[in-house]
Write a structure and sequence with these properties.
The complex is a heterodimer of chains A (115) and B (110). Chain A has 115 residues and is an all-beta fold. Chain A has no helices and 10 strands. Chain A has strands at 5-7, 10-13, 19-24, 31-37, 43-50, 65-69, 75-79, 88-95, 104-106, 110-114. In chain A, strands 2, 4, 5, 8, 9 and 10 form a 6-stranded mixed β-sheet that branches. In chain A, strands 1-3-7-6 form a 4-stranded antiparallel β-sheet, with no helix packed on it. Chain A is globular, with a radius of gyration of 14 Å. The N and C termini of chain A lie far apart (37 Å). Chain B has 110 residues and is mainly β. Helices cover 0% and strands 57% of the residues of chain B. In chain B, strands 2, 4, 5, 9, 10 and 11 form a 6-stranded mixed β-sheet that branches. A 5-stranded antiparallel β-sheet of chain B has the order 1-3-8-7-6, with no helix packed on it. The N and C termini of chain B lie far apart (40 Å). Classes of the chains: A mainly beta (115), B mainly beta (110). The interface between A and B is medium-sized, with 25 and 23 residues.
Chain lengths: 115, 110
């Protein structure tokens, strides 16, 4: 089946504007993650959704960042009043559970540039 | 929180050479994965290996959980192996927060 998809692929915005990033996980996957990757850096955990449980928001860098997951499927990451330091690649991953395996599968990412 | 350290940070190989990448972690884990990020930025899952040894073609991985490290072996390297290799660890069966190392950047020259 299809992999994790993200949209838009690229987003250029002006400082102070709000942006919404979308993630469509693999069908049937129970968990969904958002990460941020700055140029040349590793992955920074942002937020994690697991089924109907309360999300783990411990990685969100400020209250300008929020995320929702509707119907246990599609997720939207919203950044309000964007700043230049928000420029990064935002990656979404979904996870299946197969026996004891907890494998994450990543989408292609959204490249955000804040001018 | 848990610390994940990868070494070496950079590695340059001639095509056909073998290499070993290392991932050390500071506490017990029950989920460890190796990923390859290709030059276009796509992250590809290589192994889920919280313990033991697995092999997939020219790649193999070993995790010694009691000593808190994992190794990724690449044999007969090819130019398409170039990119960044990350390990990621997660604690607790249902815990969501996975911690990534800073990666090893591999360049394989023809």
């Amino acid at each position: 089946g299809a992999g994790v998809s993200q949209s838009p692929s690229n987003k250029v915005t002006e400082k102070g504007k709000d942006v919404e990033l979308r993630c469509d996980p693999i069908s049937g996957h129970t968990a969904l993650y958002w990460y941020r990757q700055s140029l040349g850096q590793g992955l920074e955990f942002l937020i994690y959704f697991q089924g109907n449980s309360a999300p783990d928001k411990s990685g969100l860098p400020s209250d300008r960042f929020s995320a929702e997951r509707t119907g246990g499927s599609v997720s939207t990451l919203t950044i309000q009043r964007t700043q230049q330091e928000d420029s990064a690649v935002y990656l979404c991953a979904s996870r299946r559970r197969s026996g004891r395996s907890e494998t994450q599968y990543f989408g292609p990412g959204t490249r955000l540039l804040v001018l | 929180g848990i610390q994940v350290e990868q070494s070496p940070p950079d590695l340059i190989l001639q095509e056909g050479a073998n290499s070993t990448l290392r991932c050390n972690f500071s506490d017990s884990v029950n989920n460890l994965q190796w990923f390859h990020q290709n030059p276009w930025g796509q992250l590809i899952n290589l192994f889920y290996i919280p313990s033991g040894t697995k092999q997939n073609g020219r790649l193999s991985a070993t995790t010694v959980a009691t000593e808190r490290y994992s190794l990724l072996y690449i044999s007969s390297s090819q130019t398409t192996d170039s990119g960044v290799y990350f390990c990621a660890v997660l604690r607790g069966t249902n815990a969501g927060k996975s911690t990534f190392g800073d990666g090893t950047t591999l360049t394989v020259k023809p």
